[in-house]
Amino acid sequence: MAPNPSSAPLLFDRALLRARQARAQNHGAATFLLDRVAEEMDERLHAVLRTFTHAADIATPGDGLRAAIAGRVGQLAYVAVPDDERDGLGLAPASLDLVVSALALHFVNDLPGAMVQISRALRPDGLLLAAMLGGDTLTELRQSFAAAEAEREGGISPRVAPFADLRDVGALLQRAGFALPVTDVDRIIVRYDSAFALMQDLRRMGATNILMERRRTPLRRATLLRMAQIYSERFSDPDGRIRATFEVIWLSGWAPHESQQKPLKPGSAKASLADAVRGLKK
């Protein structure tokens, strides 16, 4: 049974996300992270020795991913996540061979519900391949903001989204009914002249704070300057440039099919680990 969308906590203001992504596109989006993920996704799809006739891209910003993988699929549709996620993704059951998504699923409020919808939309032996930001993303910025606000204002407010970790994502794939689930992590370190340069890039990604619980009053200038100072003190290299971590979690899973490999039943192995170890010692 799919999770009840109405029970999912509203962490993200999706209408604000859509507005900020549109603004980023209009003012020259920073696409270096998306470009890297799109190139990697194309390489991963090339390792799958099959063709995909009907595919969907779930909410990837821009058109770089669809351009990168266009030669790997027949029909490739774009599917937006609605502002009110109770409306669902609008995916017909058993209609797709492939679902992809790049740097978008981490902003879905009801990710378990979305995963179930994707699983049901895949035909038997259909593939989900996606990349989303993980829990260590922008950890330096998060720590620097928290320290500055605690020092200057006597408390902290949410500034960076609480992204999922690798184990949570793997468990989510299993609960949604995917077979052969696989997750792995790509940690990308980007260097900037200052925290302000990083924040400018985040604006150009359309990835600034969209948390529902964000503070609505403007950030104090003194707090912002102290945040940048703490960032430089704690997370700079010898040349003075600061580091920013982007943790990309890759996830894949297949809609169940009888042709897929099955794990052996307990006790059905024809050779024991002890026998294998003894053979290595001879």
Which strand order does the major sheet show?
Answer: 2-1-3-4-6-5
- Rough shape? elongated
Helix content: 25-40%
What number of domains?
1
> Beta fraction of the residues?
15-25%
Element-by-element helix/strand order: HHEHEEHEHHEHHEH
The biggest sheet, with number of strands, parallel, antiparallel or mixed sense and barrel status, is: 6 strands, mixed
CATH homologous superfamily placement: Vaccinia Virus protein VP39
Low-confidence stretches: 1-6
CATH class, named Alpha Beta
Structural class: alpha/beta
Distance, first to last CA: 53 Å
Number of helices: 9
Looking at CATH, which topology would you report? Rossmann fold
The rounded Rg comes to: 22 Å
CATH architecture grouping = 3-Layer(aba) Sandwich
Q: How would you characterize the overall build of this protein?
A:
By secondary structure, this protein is an alpha/beta fold. The chain has one domain (5-138, 162-211, 246-268): 3-Layer(aba) Sandwich (Rossmann fold). It is 37% helix and 21% strand. It contains 9 helices and 6 strands; from the N terminus they run H-H-E-H-E-E-H-E-H-H-E-H-H-E-H. The protein has helices at residues 14-26, 32-46, 64-69, 111-121, 139-153, 166-175, 195-204, 221-234, 273-281; strands at residues 52-58, 73-79, 96-102, 122-133, 179-192, 242-254. It has a 6-stranded mixed β-sheet with strand order 2-1-3-4-6-5, sandwiched between helices. Helix 5 crosses helix 8 (221-234). It is elongated, with a radius of gyration of 22 Å. The chain starts with 13 loop residues before the first helix and ends with a helix. Residues 1-6 have low confidence and may be disordered.
